[in-house]
Amino acid sequence: MKLWLIGAYGIVATTAMVGAKAIEKGVTDTTGLVSELFDLNIPLKFEFGGHDIRKSKNFYEAALEHWKLNRHFDFEVLEEVGDELKTEACKGTTLNCGSGLQELGELETIDDLELREIVDTLSKDMKDSDVVVNVASTEPLILYNPEYHKTLEGFEEMLDENKKEWVSASMLYAYSALKQGIPYANFTPSVGSNLPALKELAIEKGVPHAGNDGKTGETLVKTTLAPMFSYRNLRIMGWMGYNILGDFDGKVLSHKDNKQSKVESKDKVLEKVLGYSPYTITEIEYFPSLVDNKTAFDFIHFKGFLGTSMKMYFIWDAVDAIVAAPLVLDIARFLLLAKKKGCKGVVKELGFFFKSPMDTEVVNTHEQFEILKEWCSEIAK
Ligand SMILES: NC(=O)c1ccc[n+]([C@@H]2O[C@H](COP(=O)([O-])OP(=O)(O)OC[C@H]3O[C@@H](n4cnc5c(N)ncnc54)[C@H](O)[C@@H]3O)[C@@H](O)[C@H]2O)c1
Q1: Which of 198, 205, 322, 349 is the most exposed place for a label (fewest CB within 10 A)?
Q2: How many percent of the chain have pLDDT more than 90?
Q3: Which residue CA neighbors atom 33 of ligand 1 most closely?
């Protein structure tokens, strides 16, 4: 199976590649992979391809660059699988990707082409793939324009008329995948396939898709812990989450326009879990020396019996790519299963993996896991 990654030179993408190859070679085990808890009958065996806009020789060199900064796994693992990752990424597009991308150095893109030519190029690049996952840098929010975003006809008119101001790169990648019947997932808070026009396309082509924004760290804990307060009828008055991170992701997110979509994605979950809106502060700040070691400090102020106020604090201190990479492989496997079983459109049951799951209000991790389990046993029949 070929897994196509948008943002293929990134740390999440390259860690997923190294991990998949290491598992295949028996160099490491499957700890961290949710899909291994189920009997999916979808092999854990991937070839990789992808798009990027940064210069690098191949996936191995990109992985090595991240390893030198982060040392996020044993070097022997990288050496063991390196020869299988000597593929170069195809050049992608950065249309409306925001000022944050200037942090990534010199870029190589196909942005000069007209929209139809961009889509044709991306489509050709990914045509032999079985599943596509977007792990590129977070784009800014883009204004919704019903004329071009609401229907597939409008979206295609936008492409034909080369209206570049109304489209972001993630939409073009999603369109290129779905149009060819390739399952697509969006691991980022960017728009991706989360547009009525692209949902229509997925249904028309009979292809499953899922998103948005991998739920890997602070939000995973938040949506697991917040229900506890509800179960005990404790009232959360305020929740502050302060995140610091370095690396390329942190650099890009240090730009206000790119950060906004991430903050929204993290901030909205509490209201959905609790059914009311406590006071919230959600901050994400760039902290270079941490590199990929993201740290989140959370402070929860809650009220109990007799109106007494109490507090809870937690610190989440994880290597971002190590919690994210297995989920990329999981999502790819679940989408392959969905495709095999004839699912089309948004696979809401995969909401478990996302901070802002599409087309569902369920963000409580416990409920999401039950839904995933039920779906797997139904679909396996
Ligand atoms: N725990 C996690 O790490 C986590 C959780 C949820 C979501 N995410 C999201 O996953 C994405 C990747 O994170 P990362 O830590 O690997 O970041 P990264 O900066 O290491 O990698 C991103 C890669 O995308 C490339 N890129 C940027 N814009 C592109 C475009 N338009 N087309 C093709 N490639 C492009 C960059 O050159 C870079 O190689 C980010 O959007 C991040 O917010 C990560």
Answers
A1: 205
A2: 86
A3: 52
Domain extent listing, the chain: 2-214+322-379, 218-318
Burial of 112 (C-beta count, 10 Å sphere; 0-12/13-18/19+): exposed
Of 134, 135, 221, 243, the one to substitute when testing ligand 1's pocket (max ligand atoms within 8 A of C-beta) is 135
Ligand 1 lined by 98 (C-beta under 6 Å): no
Supply the mean pLDDT for the chain.
94
Residue bearing the CA closest to ligand 1, atom 12? 135
- Helix and strand totals (H; E) in the chain: 14, 11
Residue 331 CB less than 6 A away from ligand 1: no
Nearest-atom index, ligand 1, CA of 248: 19
CATH of 218-318, one of 3.30.360.10, 3.40.50.150, 3.40.47.10, 3.40.50.880: 3.30.360.10
Tally Cβ neighbours within 10 Å of residue 257: 15
Could you report the per-residue pLDDT of 73-110, keeping only the tens digit for each? 999 999 999 999 999 999 999 999 988 888 888 899 99
CATH of 2-214+322-379, one of 3.40.250.10, 3.40.50.720, 1.10.246.10, 3.30.200.20: 3.40.50.720
**Which residue's CA is the nearest one to ligand 1's atom 10?**
135
pLDDT > 80? residue 259: no
* Contact between 123 and 180 (Cβ < 8 Å): yes
Q: Is the CB of 214 under 6 A from ligand 1?
A: yes
Give this prediction's pTM. 0.95
The residues near 200 (Cβ < 8 Å, ≥ 6 apart) are: 151, 152
Mapping DSSP to helix (H, G, I), strand (E, B) and coil, where does residue 290 land? helix
Q: Is the CB of 56 under 6 A from ligand 1?
A: no
